[in-house]
């Protein structure tokens, strides 16, 4: 029998919930539901007037949380949605403002471990990588339908691959002779070019690049962050957990930019924009998982937690 904790172990749970500075009667949004760890803890900390909304584009995650509800007094809402479109969910429920929002950008353990989903390079699985199974784009399509130049750009921008042109050329040559439909096919292609064994770090970056491209992750993140500013109440908190430098850089720059009081050009001697600081960073340096947590959950080792508060 599947137990509650087998779906996904939430990372930095206590630190992220503390970062939200919960008000018992507040309204909180979990933008990346996953196994529902953060969502359940939020629900447990709210009273009967509090509301917690959980969204995810993965129907399997939503079903899991529905099947394992917590016994709480607070109001709980679940919706299938992209996290970049959380505003549509709020409008559906006539919610104009929220007191906190959490985004956990990591894959859930279930997604990684499920061979049908194609997120892992450690087993021979279909090159799928869709977080939303209804999406038309897959990693296989990215490989077969992208030009060599486009693929090189994906590897460079989303995987930070060293010499992405070489890898893109190798993949293009291989796919011209054999179909690349599984992670095993892709590993074979890379081994033909780089020799055996290929470093796990190289494979990890390659799979990261394809997954980000399939799910349009970076653009979704940018959109979600800017909408969060609009929907947070004054004093509301935004909490983001990132797992690689691309996501974390976007989050860090976003918080820093909204913390600035002036956005005029450097050559303008007097401020003309009169823009106030919108956000205040609660932690200047990213919070990392403790040694004890990493010992319990190796997937926490790369987690980076950033927190900010809306001040206007």
Strand and helix layout:
Layout lengths: L12 H7 L7 E4 L6 H9 L5 E6 L2 H9 L7 E6 L5 H7 L5 E7 L4 H5 L25 H7 L2 H12 L4 H14 L5 H12 L5 H16 L1 H15 E11 L2 H15 L19 E3 L9 H6 L7 E7 L2
Parallel strand pairs: 1-2, 1-4, 2-3, 4-5
Antiparallel strand pairs: 5-7, 6-7
Helix pairs in contact: 7-8, 7-10, 8-9, 11-12
Q: Main traits of this protein?
A:
single chain; 312 residues; alpha/beta; Rossmann fold; DNA polymerase, domain 1; seven-stranded mixed β-sheet; 13 helices; 7 strands; 14% strand; disordered N terminus
Q: Describe it for me?
A:
- By secondary structure, the chain is α/β, with parallel strands linked by helices.
- The protein folds into 2 domains: 4-110 and 217-310, Rossmann fold; 116-215, DNA polymerase, domain 1 (Orthogonal Bundle), CATH 1.10.150.
- It is built from 13 helices and 7 strands.
- The chain has a 7-stranded mixed beta sheet with strand order 3-2-1-4-5-7-6, sandwiched between helices.
- Strand 2 (51-56), helix 3 and strand 3 form a beta-alpha-beta unit.
- Helix 8 (164-177) packs across helix 9 (183-194).
- The longest helix has 16 residues, at 200-215.
- The protein is globular, with a radius of gyration of 21 Å.
- The termini are far apart.
- Mean pLDDT is 92; it is low at 1-5.
Arithmetic mean pLDDT: 92
Total count of strands: 7
Q: Total helix count?
A: 13
Largest sheet: 7 strands, mixed
* CATH homologous superfamily label of the largest domain: Vaccinia Virus protein VP39
Pattern of helices and strands = HEHEHEHEHHHHHHHEHEHE
Given as residue ranges, the uncertain stretches (5+ residues, pLDDT < 50) are 1-5
What name is given to the CATH topology of the largest domain? Rossmann fold
Q: What's the architecture of the largest domain, going by CATH?
A: 3-Layer(aba) Sandwich
Estimate the strand proportion.
Answer: 5-15%
Structural class: alpha/beta
Please identify the top-level CATH class of the largest domain: Alpha Beta
Distance between the termini: 49 Å
Q: How many discrete structural domains?
A: 2
Strand order, sheet with most strands:
3-2-1-4-5-7-6
Question: What is the helical fraction, as a range of percent?
Answer: 40-55%
Shape, per Cα inertia axes: globular
Compute the CA-based radius of gyration: 21 Å
